[in-house]
Write a structure and sequence with these properties.
The chain is an alpha+beta fold. 32% of the residues lie in helices and 38% in strands.
Amino acid sequence: MHLHKLDEFVFLVLVDPKTAIVVSDTSIKDQVAMFIAHIHIYNTSIVKTVYHAINITSTKAKLFMIRCGLNQTT
């Protein structure tokens, strides 16, 4: 069911210039936090953005996630 809805959404983006797809991933390993986003907007190439921060503590990791616009950290 979810894959069907995702397919419908992707086809919507292909024909609607006001819609974008953003696929993101975050990770924190060895005191390095990374946020990667792939963005596709109507009739343009996929754009990849990478943000990273070094020497991260748990408090700094939470602030990093807030700065990147994420709602939740694990």
